């Protein structure tokens, strides 16, 4: 399978990106044994090259932290830059859209420094990420049936245990 791994970490004064980078590195190690991989980060990307990567990929795995219950600004900017008309979707003279990235799937791996109490007040993570899901669906990219992981940890008490992360990716092998 052809897999595009996106490291959606965006520099932030309170987060250094080690957790997201570790998840991407583990994904590379586990999936690279049996699949073709390409990667990208939120700094220094070329839009034309990123379009080629998306066109090449069968599965896109987005790894990113959730900041203030939303995508990091760098990942949002990347998607705004890359998911462009006539590359990811087309419109006809009447303004009707046609997705151009069909037969592709996505999943994501999110990290969220919070307690379960912090999340109890409102929508779940799936609802928080519904704009991302809608944007990708608009382009024809559908959710993968396999892996979706949300790593929630209390930054003041523990660091997350990533020892089982490789096993989580096993359905993709």
UniProtKB/TrEMBL annotation:
Enzyme Commission code(s) on record: 1.-.-.-
Broad EC category: oxidoreductase
Protein's organism: Lacticaseibacillus baoqingensis
Record family assignment: Belongs to the oxidoreductase MdaB family.
Database matches in Pfam families: Flavodoxin_2
Keywords tagged on the record: FAD, Flavoprotein, Oxidoreductase
Molecular function per GO: oxidoreductase activity
UniProt name for this protein: NAD(P)H-dependent oxidoreductase
Domain of life per record: Bacteria
Gene3D superfamilies given in the database record: 3.40.50.360
KW Oxidoreductase (keyword) present: yes
InterPro entries linked to this entry: Flavodoxin_fold, Flavoprotein-like_sf, NADPH-QR_MdaB
């Amino acid at each position: 399978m052809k897999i595009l791994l996106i490291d959606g970490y965006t520099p932030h004064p309170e987060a250094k990106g080690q957790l997201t980078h570790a998840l991407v590195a583990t994904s590379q190690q586990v999936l690279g044994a049996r699949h073709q991989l390409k990667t990208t980060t939120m700094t220094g990307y070329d839009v034309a090259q990123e379009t080629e990567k998306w066109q090449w990929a069968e599965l896109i795995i987005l790894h990113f932290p959730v900041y203030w219950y939303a995508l990091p600004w760098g990942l949002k900017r990347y998607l705004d830059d890359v998911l462009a008309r006539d590359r990811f979707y087309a419109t006809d003279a009447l303004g009707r859209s046609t997705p151009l990235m069909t037969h592709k799937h996505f999943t994501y791996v999110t990290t969220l420094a919070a307690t379960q109490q912090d999340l109890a007040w409102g929508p779940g993570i799936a609802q928080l990420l519904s704009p991302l899901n809608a944007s990708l669906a608009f382009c024809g990219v559908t959710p993968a049936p396999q892996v979706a992981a949300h790593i929630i940890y209390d930054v003041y008490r523990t660091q997350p245990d990533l020892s089982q992360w490789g096993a989580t990716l096993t359905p993709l092998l």
